[in-house]
Amino acid sequence: MNENEPHQGEFRITSENDIVMARKVVRDAATTLGFGLTDVTRIVTAASELTRNIYHYAKSGVMHWRVLNSGTENGLELTFEDQGPGIPDIEKAMEPGFSTGKGLGMGLPGSKRLMDELTIESTVGKGTTVVVRKWMRK
Ligand SMILES: Nc1ncnc2c1ncn2[C@@H]1O[C@H](COP(=O)(O)OP(=O)(O)O)[C@@H](O)[C@H]1O
Ligand SMILES: [Mg+2]
Question: What pLDDT tens digit does each residue of the chain (138 aa) get?
Fold first, then answer.
């Protein structure tokens, strides 16, 4: 990737249309970093689900993205942060098919499958932070 390209950014989610915009931000960042089309699609799909969760359950929030460097790999980290109702039982929320809404309950488990790492921190009444990472051999 080019030295002049930004290595991080953030995007505020306040409307349904921001789900579409967040997809574009993530697609551009992942493509610029050098991910192949298949991985770009995986990352964009996960970002779409996690942005959708912010919009549906918390109404608003922020997505941060940043480039990671380990010794041998580059990666992309996406953080989805909201001050919504929180998730009372994270283990349950991670089960395929579990939904408190009208969803399919595949957003969180699907995102974990599509990415290399997914961690959730959540406090009821305070909010939720979901961090996902995808790695790419240099
Ligand atoms: N940001 C969030 N804030 C509060 N609850 C959430 C959030 N994201 C997910 N959840 C909870 O976890 C459940 C599972 O999420 P997900 O796997 O995306 O399925 P779905 O959105 O289809 O219900 C949701 O039904 C909801 O109860
Ligand atoms: Mg969902």
Answer: 666 788 999 999 999 999 999 999 999 999 999 999 999 999 999 999 999 999 999 999 999 999 999 888 999 999 999 999 999 999 999 999 999 998 999 999 999 999 999 999 999 999 999 999 999 976
Contacts of 39 (CB under 8 A, 6+ apart): 30, 134, 136
Question: Does residue 124's CB lie within 6 angstroms of at least one atom of ligand 1?
Answer: no
48 lines ligand 1 (CB under 6 A): no
The CATH number of residue 113's host domain is 3.30.565.10
Verdict on whether the full-model pTM lies above 0.85? yes
Is 136 in contact with 75 (CB distance < 8 Å)? yes
Domain annotation covers residue 16:
yes
